[in-house]
């Protein structure tokens, strides 16, 4: 059966810049090619990588025009069989699915994607909550398991523990019986995290290196860092003998983020060459593209955990797709505690 082209609206950034560059455009979305599915987006997560992509500061998205957004929940509209001659069971029309895209494009009413990407959302799991899971929780799982090799009885340090990835790490690590240390500054965040079993370190007042050396004299199994700079060397000094420092992002100067990210990644790699030191870079979009089995197994597992209440994604606010600029404003100003989600 011939599949039709359909009208679509999506957010497009034609040139890097402020939130005014987030434009809603009308277009015609072609029928999916062989081995692809077309999904009606119901909700799309908003993250700091989207802001960095909009401003031209994101290493993995260096060209315009672009449509931001890595993560979504939607409903399969149609699909075209691939080389097997059949559409996978999880890509049947009408199936509610989640996806974390290997390339940006989720700020859209419809998205075409390879048929291995959509993962069914369990019945009973709220659509908005499900849209808060893919990228942050996949990153947390990759940090803890793929790179950190963290298990029960280990201790970890999470910088920026009150952020989206930090909260996801806390929920997963707490279930696994891991001792969690985390740096944060907000008093509200500190109280919330302390209730979740985190030993919170106020980085404005306390030296995290001294706290860890005092309370974990043998060191921590893993340090999860999204800051870079001097934090990298200080993190190495508090690792247990077989511990690892994992970087999943880097802070940088406005307008110089790409260069600072490259410099940070190079620093992490070089530090890992020192005898007795282990470092790693966590880049989940690339991990998704290169390891389909890990991606599908991990996202299915996370969605199931959310459906059964084992993890609880926190939604901060929702915005209509055409209000994507307001969502970026809110995220930049830290006006909401929790994940921001666009709805169509």
Describe it for me?
The chain has 344 residues and is an alpha/beta fold. It has 2 domains: 184 residues, Medium-chain alcohol dehydrogenases, catalytic domain (Quinone Oxidoreductase, Chain A, domain 1, Alpha-Beta Complex), CATH 3.90.180; 147 residues, NAD(P)-binding Rossmann-like Domain (Rossmann fold). Strands 3, 4, 5, 6, 7, 14 and 15 form a 7-stranded mixed sheet that branches. It has a 6-stranded parallel sheet with strand order 10-9-8-11-12-13, with helices on both faces. Strand 14, helix 11 and strand 15 form a beta-alpha-beta unit. The radius of gyration is 20 Å and the shape is globular. The mean pLDDT is 95.
* CATH homologous superfamily heading of the largest domain: Medium-chain alcohol dehydrogenases, catalytic domain
Share of residues in helices? 25-40%
- Please report the number of helical segments: 11
Percent range for β-strand residues:
25-35%
Low-pLDDT residue spans = none
**Could you say what the CATH architecture of the largest domain is?**
Alpha-Beta Complex
The count of strands amounts to 15
Question: Radius of gyration in whole Å, from Cα?
Answer: 20 Å
- What distance separates the N and C termini? 28 Å
Biggest beta sheet attributes: 7 strands, mixed
Shape: globular
Can you tell me the CATH class of the largest domain?
Alpha Beta
**Mean of the pLDDT scores?**
95
Kindly report the CATH topology of the largest domain.
Quinone Oxidoreductase, Chain A, domain 1
Tally of distinct domains: 2
Q: Structural class of the secondary elements?
A: alpha/beta
Helix and strand run: EEEHEEEEHHEHEHEHEHEHEHHEHE
Domain Enoyl reductase (ER): 17-342
GO molecular function, one term: oxidoreductase activity
Pfam family, one: ADH_zinc_N_2
Organism: Phytoactinopolyspora halotolerans
């Amino acid at each position: 059966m011939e599949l039709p082209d359909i009208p679509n609206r999506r957010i497009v950034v034609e040139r890097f810049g402020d939130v005014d560059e987030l434009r809603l455009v009308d277009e015609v979305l072609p029928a999916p090619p062989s081995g692809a599915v077309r999904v009606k987006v119901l909700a799309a997560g908003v993250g700091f990588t989207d802001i960095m992509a909009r401003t031209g500061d994101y290493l993995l998205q260096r060209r315009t025009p672009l449509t931001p957004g890595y993560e979504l929940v939607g409903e399969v509209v149609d699909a075209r069989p691939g080389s097997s001659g059949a559409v996978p069971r999880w890509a049947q029309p009408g199936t509610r699915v989640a996806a974390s895209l290997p390339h940006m494009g989720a700020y859209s009413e419809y998205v075409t994607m390879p048929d291995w990407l959509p993962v069914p959302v369990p019945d009973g799991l709220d659509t908005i909550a499900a849209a808060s899971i893919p990228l942050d929780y996949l990153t947390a799982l990759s940090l803890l398991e793929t790179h950190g090799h963290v298990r029960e009885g280990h201790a970890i340090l999470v910088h920026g523990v009150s952020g989206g990835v930090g909260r996801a790490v806390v929920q997963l690590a707490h279930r696994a019986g891991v001792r969690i240390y985390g740096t944060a500054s907000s008093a509200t965040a500190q109280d919330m995290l302390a209730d979740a079993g985190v030993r919170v370190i106020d980085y404005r007042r306390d030296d995290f290196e001294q706290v860890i050396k005092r309370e974990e004299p043998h060191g921590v199994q893993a340090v999860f860092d999204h800051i870079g700079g001097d934090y990298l060397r200080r993190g190495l000094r508090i690792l247990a003998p077989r511990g690892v420092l994992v970087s999943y992002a880097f802070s940088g100067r406005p307008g110089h983020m790409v260069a600072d990210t490259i410099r940070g990644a190079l620093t992490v790699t070089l530090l890992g060459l020192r005898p007795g030191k282990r470092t790693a870079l966590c880049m989940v979009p690339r991990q998704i593209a290169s390891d389909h089995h890990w991606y599908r197994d991990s996202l299915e597992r996370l969605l199931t955990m959310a459906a059964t209440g084992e993890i609880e994604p926190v939604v901060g606010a929702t915005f209509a797709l055409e209000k994507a600029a307001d969502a970026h404003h809110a995220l930049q100003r830290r006006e909401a505690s929790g994940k921001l989600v666009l709805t169509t």
